């Protein structure tokens, strides 16, 4: 429903007495039931029957645009939803018979399609009817008219000649349009003509000149009419005006050009706009003025337009009738004109009829009160039928503007229409009468809370609905019946009003709605709040410029309301400046300036009320002062305690001298003379602008207070202590914190807590009441009181059981608050069960998954931490129990939580494992499960244990190797891969060889001499090949040994006198079992020395000692050097460990043992790996040994011996007998290098250089001369080269493609009927066929892509029609030419027209200028 109220409203219907029926109507009214307002709540409307109500309709006068559809709106609602019908010109309009008319579904809106039809055929008066089972509603009469913009009538305008200084009128007289057009004057260049006090446009569109001047001389005065609906503009023929100048110009008195005569009349309708116009002539131009005889002009509704020539009054009323005088004045006199205005009125509502909902046997009244001038005639209708023609109803009586319905019955619902009309218009209103019987409903939401401020009125709503209208009764707190007497007022709509609410009015209120069909109640609540008040208002301030100004605004408000403090300056917001600081109860303005002067207002807002106060700031010039010294403030004085209560006190003080630095804050400290005498504790801080603090206190404390002030320099000294203030003892306010329960031994429970301090005790005799009971067991609390302690041990409890624990503080004055319950557990014991069902699933050779069944929670006897899985490798599957390693290390994996499976990492392939599991709690591990064995499958083996290179020669060498330390399965053989190494980034082809498992040596023949080889050896099982063992070795090269002279920056050094031998890449020549080995060594102690041997060799002796659980094996090694023997004793610890202590028995006589260092590399002796022994000492001889060179085409191989410790090694070379600088190439970490890019037939000087990065020392070999042999010229057959054959094939393919293209273009050119076109047009620019080349002069193949002669081609590739008189487009049969992808024309020279296709698609070429002009016109 559309009514804007949510409650029942008693209709206060006053009635007019008409004739003899007045007495009867008065009697009837005394028995009329109050009319029921229809609520908006959709929950109420749902299910209620409702007659139709018009909700939307088109305006009474509807002017439509003939270019658009006609849409006549008619929307209505009702229950059930109404159906719609229409009348046109008083007759039924059958919508279904006209295909151009559409009735929107579920609506009464008409949509008329007037495209292709004469719009005039649908002009007329339309009316909509909405009908359902409970009545019929009708719309206004809607007059439909077509907008019109007729053409200007043809007329011949004569030129106007006028004398300067006289008046003139240029008529416009536009055609009458619908609606009327808008008039304006312009010249022939579409510029508006200037209007002023002398030249003005009248309301009818004519152009008035009060007097003519020479500048009015022109021939283009044009009147334009714009018709708003069609948005078309029409113009009148230009008017030519010639102004004749006369000397002198004669001035004249004012006179009126319009209106004429001394008086005129004007009628206007009430509510419309009144426009009065007076245009005067005269020289000088007259000034206009207006007045109303016997009254004043309504200033709020009046305006003057057109340089005061037009008086405009909006929203005209009856009081605007009267005589209006316009006066025109110049220096020669004044002219007057009186306009008599009368105000008439179309009908307007005083009280429109309202919808009624009546209960059976109730009486209701419909009133239709209207006014107008002349007085309107009132007619009543029922369901769209005149009431006098409607079926008789004895309960209905009509008297002029009133309809009385007495004792209505169910089923008598209807819609009544009231029509009021006079000669200026009509009003139509629908009002339904619905007869309902409904029990009461309360529409106000339940339990709504109303909040008001003390001493303000309170309104408690009880919006209800029911038929008959319910009676409302109010109760307070469900007990006290409320009567309509002071302080309560119960309104007719059920609202309860409390005139002046007080705190005692707060509470619960209940409204009860009652009618003869039922009772309904609703509860609401009222809260009366304390008002917001400013206790300390800001005060007037005078501040020096550059200082700070502080405004205080202390406020008191209801604690349940959230306040908001706002500061204003001069009624507006504070400036956005960081100098303005707003605190909770103050405003601080720092470094004030003259711009800060003004009135400052503090406003305290809550959701219910507000309060405000203002003060003014005046800024004065700062007085010159000497230099300012800043110091700490003086301590506050005169501490005073006020407002003393058991738990609070107010402390006030006087601030000390600030010493030129404003106090930022005050720090308040207290001393507890009872519990901690002599100790001052920080209590709180307050702002530096305050001198008081409200302090919250604790019981049983002997307080003393002191205050410190702080400014930007620092804290002041403390003030003198205040007098002592003792608070009375009380029961504890809090209980001990950090309460815990935890068992330390099986079956006990240690309950601990953090004790209260003396300050927290609140009184003497502090003790703790400890309570505990087993959780989830129905038993009473056990308790014990503990004094002077912070824990309690409870024994004799079950193992690991949860307990509820509470610790409550108490003293001589009572118990503390109820303690919170904490969960703790009694002590744990070791688990007593082992996991069952252990199952191992092997995934691959190195991982397995173990599964087990969890133990029962009861057997854990503690907090389950997880499960520990123990597993150990017993032996390899290829080993016997005797060969197995009995000292294999046990592995442990812990799985946290209640897991039942886990992954075992780090397994060795092809092995037998044993596994067991223990459960783990916080106390420890439980018994182990039964042992479980599992096997791992084979895997890939590890690398071979060693790879040695033996007996290198010019073209062969021997490799020897040992089986892998970790076979990981059954070995099935070995794979050897080797390849020559050209340089550090380039290698030769790979050779692969396979060997059975019983072969561990091979001799490689047919190798290249002087070449470095890289060897990769791997072992294999059925699972594949394992990791490679890599070694590099070189074949021996034929070379000339030279003894280098090595310089160190101080002169040459003699080479050693003992012989040397070539050294291979293998650092460990083998010692064969059963033979004595004497390795050849280059130098003695103070050089490098390498040995390789097996621990079980015949020349070794072995002793066993036991040291800290490890085997210490001592090896004694002897070898014969070129001069004399040297003996070393090496101590080697098994399990891959080494001992760095060495006992040197005999050394070379020339070598000092003090400067020697010893290095060992050791392995477990059980697997008999190679053992390397290195003995080294600082270098005392040359760092370079023999240098060898060998050459080939464009490169040279340089090898050398090096014994130094330097890492920066270079090979330097330069052309012999040249002055070029040495070129160098880095060869760090290598003993050979290949120089590439050398010129054949050229000799080079080569040397090897070692540089010390830590100093200037330079070591270099002697220069070697290397000659690169000249290369004989080689004849290469180019015909056999691959690149030549490919090039020839590409050229042949390109020629073939060109031939195909030429063939296609020749065939396509034969289809062009060019010759006929040329003969028809006889274009002199078309050239004849050239005799020398047989091609067309204009259309040769070489010019297929050139523009035509005499034409220009735009950059976008289109040919414009207007830029060439000889375009190929002229040869076509219509339409613009189009280009194919190869540049040829299509559609012009083929036998088929392409016009249709061309016109049906968008074109990318520029539009024709002619077409563009036509589209503009």
Q: How is this structure best described in words?
A:
By secondary structure, the protein is mainly beta. It contains eight helices and 105 strands. The strands form 29 sheets. Strands 2, 5, 6, 9, 10 and 11 form a six-stranded mixed β-sheet that branches. Strands 82, 83, 84, 86, 87 and 88 form a six-stranded antiparallel β-sheet that branches. A hairpin with a 4-residue loop joins strand 25 (about 300-305) and strand 26. The longest helix has 28 residues, at about 1280-1310. The protein starts with about 20 loop residues before the first helix and ends with a helix. Mean pLDDT is about 80; it is low at about 1-35, about 1040-1180 and about 1310-1415.
Q: What is the number of helices? A: 8
Structural class: mainly beta
Radius of gyration: 60 Å
Q: How many β-strand runs?
A: 105
- The rounded distance between the terminal residues' Cα atoms is 55 Å
Report helical residue fraction: under 10%
**Broad shape:** extended
What is the secondary structure topology, with strand pairs?
Elements: H1 22-29, H2 42-45, E1 50-57, E2 61-64, E3 70-72, E4 74-79, E5 83-88, E6 91-93, E7 101-103, E8 110-112, E9 124-132, E10 135-138, E11 142-146, E12 160-163, E13 168-170, E14 182-186, E15 199-201, E16 207-209, E17 218-227, E18 232-235, E19 239-244, E20 252-258, E21 263-269, E22 274-277, E23 279-283, E24 287-292, E25 302-305, E26 310-313, E27 322-330, E28 333-351, E29 356-358, E30 364-367, E31 369-373, E32 377-382, E33 385-386, E34 396-399, E35 402-405, E36 414-422, E37 425-435, E38 438-442, E39 448-453, E40 458-460, E41 464-467, E42 471-476, E43 480-482, E44 488-490, E45 496-498, E46 507-515, E47 518-529, E48 533-536, E49 541-544, E50 549-552, E51 554-556, E52 564-569, E53 572-573, E54 580-582, E55 586-589, E56 598-605, E57 610-620, E58 637-642, E59 648-654, E60 665-672, E61 676-687, E62 692-696, E63 702-710, E64 725-726, E65 737-742, E66 749-754, H3 758-761, E67 767-774, E68 782-786, E69 791-794, E70 802-811, E71 814-815, E72 822-825, E73 836-842, E74 848-853, H4 857-860, E75 864-876, E76 891-896, ...
Parallel strand pairs: 2-11, 12-19, 21-28, 29-37, 39-47, 49-57
Antiparallel strand pairs: 1-4, 3-8, 5-6, 5-9, 7-8, 9-10, 9-11, 13-16, 14-17, 15-16, 17-18, 17-19, 20-23, 22-26, 24-27, 25-26, 27-28, 28-31, 30-35, 32-33, 32-36, 34-35, 36-37, 38-41, 40-45, 42-43, 42-46, 44-45, 46-47, 48-51, 50-55, 52-53, 52-56, 54-55, 56-57, 58-59, 59-62, 60-61, 60-63, 63-64, ...
